[in-house]
Design brief:
Blueprint: H1 8-20, H2 22-30, E1 41-46, E2 51-56, E3 59-60, H3 62-66, H4 71-74, E4 78-83, E5 92-95, H5 96-112, E6 120-124, H6 129-141, E7 144-147, H7 154-163, E8 168-172, E9 175-177, E10 180-182, H8 184-192, E11 200-204, E12 218-220, H9 221-225, E13 237-238, E14 242-248, E15 256-261, H10 262-277, E16 284-287, H11 294-306, E17 310-314, H12 325-333, E18 337-340, H13 342-349, H14 354-357, E19 366-370, H15 376-386, E20 393-396, E21 430-433, E22 445-451, E23 461-462, H16 466-474, E24 485-489, E25 495-500, E26 504-507, E27 510-513, H17 514-522, E28 527-537, E29 541-550, H18 558-571, E30 580-583, H19 597-604, H20 621-628
Parallel strand pairs: 4-17, 6-7, 6-8, 7-14, 8-11, 11-12, 16-17, 16-18, 18-19, 19-20, 29-30
Antiparallel strand pairs: 1-2, 3-13, 4-5, 9-10, 14-15, 15-23, 21-22, 22-24, 24-25, 26-27, 28-29
The structure holds ligand 6R9.
Length: 631
């Protein structure tokens, strides 16, 4: 299968074709995949409902494309290189044949434990081989995987299990992350006290620490494997059957369970992978993202495996045992494409280049970034020190909701430009909207990003809440998808994403909704209300600033600030702890009672001179007080 665009001319042609005749364009691509039954209609959509369906009537199984299909041609090629947390531990090299066998065996374990097509299975695991096996095993039998990032708290885990009423939990005794161990089983036990839908919990041994055992639901992963064989035919799936749910934060309390379906997701994750990274036969590709993030789903597992690539799965962190770990791995495996987040780049750039110079990075051909806007300084640091000015950098913009990369350069094919994601992939039709909700015709412009036409891997709904899906993504502009980001466009049509226009803050590459953090703070018995905003931070990109109103008579001190941080860590996770907590008497509000975060954001970012009009506030006097006591 080759879906690759190999020249600028070919990109332009493909783009034009994708706009003029989208069905023909996608048919030709989809024809290169393995289908059990061909689709009868390429696309059906109505964004007033909103509804989008691709490859209607088609039947397939994504694991046959990712595994079975390769057995004859590349069965002995390494599919996954599993690099452990500690360089002292042995790397695992798993061939396509071995991965196929492991996935089939574990799929049988799932079946033995009651899993059926359509069931939701929650996966709360470290970045180890078994995590990939678990995901693919779900897909094999048509169960819907919902991966929860293994850094989340028990409350966050329980909320996600309950939202999707998952029946099985896959977890591990613990997980290694740098010099720390996350007690995953203990956290899961805590979550399960409030997650009654879980009937079985399958526990993988990783850290071999002591755990508490609940005989009514717990079973050992390795013991279950002894009871099955590795023969498991793939379930037949319709294109529009659900493949997975992945949660992303929203601006109101509850996380949104984005639903991705089998056919369109398979096509787009693979098409984008091959084109963006220009992966060539025999290359070693590494995406350092977590699988609990859409980037990991699409660009560690599905896209690379369906393409027959060799993909690295790294369990650890960039700083352990020292700040050279990423580069040591690049040298060790002769990595050709390396894909990471700006937050990691900024963290590494703080340390001496001697951590880099020790290693031979000459195998690198392509560098990538994803997750947030990359600032000019970090871009150049990456280009100079890692790419040695010879590797194109792909700055890839997309969202959990999109399934795959939407705006980016194609490595070595289209031009990169520092801080710009640049151009849309074929099939993606971005536009900029003005304040009156009209498309801006002028090429060089600034506005709100919107997408005008469906692409195959758009999330089909928010699990259990289609109304919210409609409100969040399709009500800002009629008949356009609204991603919630602002953007600039240069005279050549390159897009630069400037950031969220709603209340989500990206801290160290993690997309954190501020509302659930506020909800958590407000749960504290001494707190009335709070507002959380982001402010620019050298290392994290953005950090959190919490404005908190305590009850009258409550003594305000460091202890209280500590308690507030604790409550956030316990409810959401340590990543969401505010850097700054300012106790205030009131919060600026609109007349309808909404907190004006725009003003707080300016204060937190030291842009007090450009606060704008505060006269529409219900209580303009509080602003002065907040500014005077700013931290
Ligand atoms: C893949 C992912 C989505 C939000 C998105 C935007 C920001 C992602 C970016 C970027 C500028 C890039 N974002 N990539 N901003 N340049 N290359 O991050 O998904 O976690 O859902 O976050 O991240 O604001 O709207 P997700």
């Amino acid at each position: 299968m080759s879906l690759q665009i190999q020249s600028l001319e070919a990109y332009k042609e493909a783009y034009q074709k994708s706009v003029e005749n989208p069905s023909l364009f996608w048919d030709e691509i989809a024809n290169q995949f393995l289908w059990r039954k061909k689709w009868t209609k390429t696309l059906e959509y109505d964004w007033t409902v909103p509804e989008t369906k691709w490859f209607l009537g088609g039947q397939m199984n994504i694991t046959e494309n990712a595994l079975d299909r390769h057995l004859e041609t590349r069965g002995d090629q390494v599919a996954l290189i599993c690099e452990p947390n500690s360089p002292e531990e042995e790397t695992k090299y798993i061939t396509y044949k071995e991965l196929h066998s492991k996935v089939c065996a574990f799929a049988n374990v799932l079946k033995r434990n009651g899993a059926k097509k359509g069931d939701r299975i929650c996966i709360y695991m470290p970045m180890i081989l078994e995590l990939s096996v678990a995901i693919l095993a779900c897909a094999r039998i048509g169960a819907i995987h919902s991966v929860v990032f293994a850094g989340f708290s028990s409350t966050a885990l329980a909320a996600r299990i309950n939202d999707a009423t998952c029946s099985i939990l896959l977890t591990a005794d613990g997980g290694f992350r740098g010099d720390k161990i996350t007690p995953l089983k203990d956290i899961a036990d805590e979550a399960l006290k409030n997650a009654p839908s879980i009937k079985k919990s399958i526990i993988c041994q990783r850290t071999y620490q002591n755990i508490t055992w609940n005989p009514s639901i717990d079973v050992w992963w390795h013991e279950e494997l002894e009871k099955v064989d590795d023969n498991c035919p793939a379930e037949t799936m319709d294109s529009e059957d659900m493949l997975f749910i992945l949660y992303t934060s929203g601006s109101t309390g509850k996380p949104k369970g984005m639903v991705h379906t089998c056919g369109g997701y398979m096509i787009y994750a693979t098409y984008s992978f091959q084109n963006v990274f220009q992966y060539k036969e025999g290359d070693i590709y590494w995406c350092s993202a977590d699988i609990g993030w859409i980037t990991g789903h699409s660009y560690i597992l599905y896209g690379p495996l369906i393409s027959g690539a060799t993909s690295i799965l790294f369990e650890g962190v960039p700083s352990y045992p020292d700040y050279g770990r990423f580069w040591q791995i690049c040298e060790k495996h002769k990595v050709n494409q390396f894909y990471t987040a700006p937050t990691a780049i900024r963290a590494l750039a703080k340390h001496p280049t001697s951590f880099i110079d020790k290693y031979d990075l000459s195998s690198l051909k392509v560098l990538g970034t994803v997750g947030e806007p990359i600032n000019e300084e970090a871009w150049h640091w990456y280009d100079d020190n890692i790419g040695k000015n010879k590797c194109p950098i792909v700055d890839t913009w997309f969202q959990t909701e999109n399934g795959g990369i939407m705006i980016t350069s194609l490595a070595g094919i289209t031009e990169s430009k520092p801080t710009y994601a640049t151009l849309p992939l074929p099939g993606i039709q971005p536009v900029l909207m003005d304040v009156n909700s009209n498309e801006i015709e002028k090429v060089e412009a600034e506005g709100i990003l919107a997408i005008k036409y469906p692409w195959p891997s758009i999330a089909r709904t928010i699990y259990g809440d289609h109304e919210r899906y409609k409100n969040v993504y399709f009500s800002a502009y009629e008949n356009y998808y609204f991603p919630g980001d602002g953007a600039l466009r240069d005279e050549r049509g390159n897009y630069r994403i400037t950031g969220r226009v709603d209340d989500v803050v990206i801290v160290s590459g993690h997309n954190l909704g501020t509302a659930p953090i506020e909800n958590a703070i407000n749960e504290h018995e001494k707190i009335v209300e709070s507002a959380v905003v982001g402010f620019p931070h050298d290392l994290k990109g953005f950090a959190l600033y919490a404005f908190v109103i305590p009850y009258d008579g409550v003594e305000v001190n460091d202890e209280l600030a500590k308690e507030v941080r604790e409550v956030v860590a316990n409810t959401i996770g340590p990543i969401a702890k505010p850097d700054k907590i300012q106790f205030v008497k009131g919060l600026p509000k609109t007349r309808s009672g909404k907190i004006m975060r725009r003003i707080l954001r300016k204060i937190a970012s030291n842009e007090i001179d450009s606060l704008g009009d505060v006269s529409t506030l219900l209580n303009p006097e509080v602003v002065k007080n907040i500014i005077e006591n700013k931290l």
